[in-house]
Design goal:
Helix content: 40-55%
Number of domains: 4
Structural class: alpha/beta
CATH architecture of the largest domain: Alpha-Beta Complex
Number of helices: 30
CATH superfamily of the largest domain: 2-enoyl-CoA Hydratase, Chain A, domain 1
Distance between the termini: 38 Å
Number of strands: 19
Shape: globular
Radius of gyration: 29 Å
Strand content: 5-15%
């Protein structure tokens, strides 16, 4: 018998117990152990029924991720599940914690299911670009109904035990000792000689004849660009049209097809990258960190208020400081309104809202920050203002307090230089809206101590963010790469494209919106202000490329003024504006550029490949330690489509040689100051490697 699965008897009940910490994942040893235990129970004449249960904090929570990408080993999970269902003796799954993926498939293969009231069940494979491959798409619609199965399988989200019982997945719920309740349930099954309920023998009934088409249509926006949800629908449809063995065969075919797809490779990459990104290369796992029990935020504007909410949501008290009572009142009113919206949607109780609001203390005095463990400055993006703030903090804050700036591109080393404690200074770049966006770009200055940036990574996780550690340069990782895309998109307007054409191509690539729609949403005045601040550093062509200036000089700042690159109605719906088209065409004449047809492929190459080349420079300079750091920044901060894995992973999928050739082509067409291959990219191409190939 396997070390991770044991078989014991309690009277006439066989207990199959899985103990494979931390989440009882379905490794080869667990699969073999379950199958052997079932066979043992069947062969033992004293055993009348069996229970599958798990030690630790959860039932089987899915596949063993350590086996991902390796050749499959017998016994395969579909065969294990089938052996459970084929047992002539009743088998009861006793679920606590979470039964996810293969864990739920094991439970669905059992004849009865009992769960603790706090348990959850789900099939999350779609989030890895896959589908449940051990009968999940065939058994779930038979037991829960087609519509409910579609919802669970295509969302990948778990449901509570109560909801699962309502759906027919769970037969009984217990509040008390699960093992005791399962044994009592098994005895009842034996005493009452309850017929074995083999899910594969049930019928998957259609709720309506058009259920699959209607479901796909209703979720088209959510599924946009993703392959797996549509393949899941196809597999569930097979459960309604084919016999169970034929349906299983179809499920397997689709699973294999998805597993080999670029999308699944990308989504699995993101899954692992998310877990790896918090580990800092070169730092020990037990790196000491500082306790963060209270926080100060400077600036009660949109960013400061959003950051304050992040800490209050995690139960950490916050002092919110601003220069006037008016700004504080406005900031607190916005926070209150944001929380009230969440309460009105039923995602937060009034009691929870009141508790969170009570943790945010508005103040006009720096003295209130003297005992906080962390201060985050979120004032206007101006170096002189920030330096003044840090000088004050340096005199007020206690020794050992971390002083952080929420700057999106300013030099952290320069900010740290005005303090007597540069080792305690770093950047903590939150993304707007800070209470929603999950990325936290933590910026390590040249003198920041490992203890300080390790603390920032740890607190980032505590407040529900995905923190990424980066180095100091203009714009750090995200905005530095974005600047390349912004420039190329502006140049393409001069050369023949229009904003709505570029936006459509970038949207179809998988971004939530195109660059010009995005600029209108953020406010064109923001980009205009940045452009003016950096004007002296621009090339001659960039200075002449002043379409943004012209639009802003018309008082068009985007959605907030009802017009920017687009015109907006009272509901902020955009429409292309002939006035802007005329402005762009006239601009091309003024700067002497003959307009031409620009194809979609060129838009992709110039917008995306320019960023990839910059990403390679960022790796070369050590601003990001690994390609995965860049991918996570772009997925969680800028909406890069998850199913493409981030810009650096996407580069490997396209092939670095193709990207290199395109860069050489644009070096000729646009100019070497904008398009020169990064030495790292050149080196990898010559060696026939990718960013991720060993």
């Amino acid at each position: 018998m396997s070390d991770v699965v044991s078989f014991a008897k309690e009277g006439s009940i066989g207990l199959i117990t899985v103990n494979n910490p931390p989440v009882n994942a379905l490794s080869q040893a667990v699969r073999a152990g379950i199958k052997e235990s079932v066979e043992k129970g069947i062969a033992d004449p004293d055993v009348k029924a069996m229970i599958i249960l798990c030690e630790g904090r959860t039932f089987i929570a899915g596949a063993d991720i350590r086996e991902f990408g390796k050749p499959p080993m017998e016994p395969h999970l579909p065969d294990v599940v089938q052996s459970i269902e084929d047992s002539p003796k009743p088998i009861i799954a006793a679920i606590h914690g979470t039964a996810l993926g293969g864990g739920l498939e094991i439970a669905l293969g059992s004849h009865f299911r009992i769960a603790h009231s706090s348990a959850k069940v789900g099939l999350p494979e779609v989030k890895l670009g896959l589908l449940p491959g051990a009968g999940g798409t065939q058994r779930l619609p038979r037991v829960a109904g087609v519509e409910a199965a579609l919802e669970m399988i295509t969302s990948g989200d778990p449901v509570s035990a109560a909801k699962a019982k309502e759906m027919g997945i769970i037969d009984e719920i217990t509040e008390g000792d699960l093992k005791k309740a399962a044994i009592a349930y098994a005895k009842r099954v034996i005493d009452e000689q309850l017929p074995l309920r083999r899910v594969s023998q049930l019928e998957a009934k259609l709720d309506t004849p058009t259920v699959f088409e209607d479901f796909a249509k209703r979720n088209a926006r959510k599924f946009r660009g993703f392959l797996a949800p549509y393949k899941c629908i196809e597999a569930v449809k097979a459960a309604t049209e084919l016999s169970f063995p034929e349906g299983m065969k179809r499920e397997r075919e689709i699973f294999v097809e998805l597993q080999a797809s670029d999308q699944s490779k990308a989504l699995r990459h993101v899954f692992f990258a998310e877990r790896e990104v918090v580990r800092i290369p070169g730092l020990p796992e037990d790196q000491p960190t500082r306790d963060i029990k209270s926080v100060g935020i400077i600036g009660a504007g949109t960013m400061g208020g959003g950051i304050a909410m992040c800490f209050a949501n995690a139960g950490i008290p916050v002092y919110l400081l601003d220069v006037s009572q008016e700004f504080l009142d406005k900031g607190m009113a916005t926070i209150k309104k944001n929380y009230a919206n969440t309460v009105s949607k039923g995602r937060l109780t009034q009691e929870e809202m009141d508790k969170r609001m009570s943790l945010i203390k508005p103040t006009l005095s720096y003295d209130d920050l003297k005992d906080v463990d962390l201060v985050i400055e979120a004032v206007f993006e101006d170096m002189n203002i920030k330096k003044e703030v840090f000088k004050k903090l340096d005199t007020v804050c206690k020794p050992g307090a971390i002083l952080a700036s929420n700057t999106s591109y300013l030099n952290i080393n320069e900010i740290a230089s005005v303090t007597k404690r540069p080792e305690d200074v770093m950047g903590m770049h939150f993304f707007s809206p800070a209470n929603v966006m999950r990325l936290l770009e933590n910026v390590r200055g040249e003198k920041t101590s490992p203890e300080v940036y390790a603390t920032a990574m740890k607190i980032g996780r505590k407040i529900g963010k995905i923190p990424v550690l980066v180095g100091v340069c203009d714009g750090f990782v995200g905005n530095r790469m974005l600047a390349q895309r912004t420039r190329e998109c502006a140049f393409m307007l001069e050369e023949g494209a229009l904003p709505w054409q570029i936006d459509k191509v970038i949207y179809d690539f998988g971004f939530p919106m195109g660059p010009f729609a995005m600029a209108d949403l953020a406010g064109l005045d923001v980009g205009w202000r940045n452009r003016k601040a950096k004007f002296d550093q621009l090339t001659e062509r960039e200075k002449r490329c002043n379409i943004l200036d012209k639009i802003c000089e018309m008082g068009r700042f985007g959605q907030k003024t009802g017009a920017g690159y687009y015109k907006y109605d009272e509901k902020r719906n955009p429409t292309p504006d002939p006035l802007i088209e005329e402005l762009i065409i006239n601009h091309s004449k003024e700067v002497g550029i003959e307009r031409r047809e620009i194809g979609d492929q060129e838009i992709i190459e110039r917008a995306i490949y320019s960023m990839i080349n910059e990403g390679a420079k960022i790796l070369e300079e050590g601003i990001a330690a690994r390609p995965l750091d860049i991918d996570i920044v772009w997925i969680y901060g800028y909406g890069f489509p998850r199913y493409r894995g981030g810009p650096m992973f996407y580069a490997d999928l396209v092939g670095l040689n193709k990207i290199y050739e395109a860069i050489l082509k644009y070096r000729e067409a646009v100019g070497p100051e904008y398009w020169t291959p990064s030495p790292l990219l050149e080196k990898l191409v010559k060696e026939g490697k990718g960013f991720y190939s060993k």
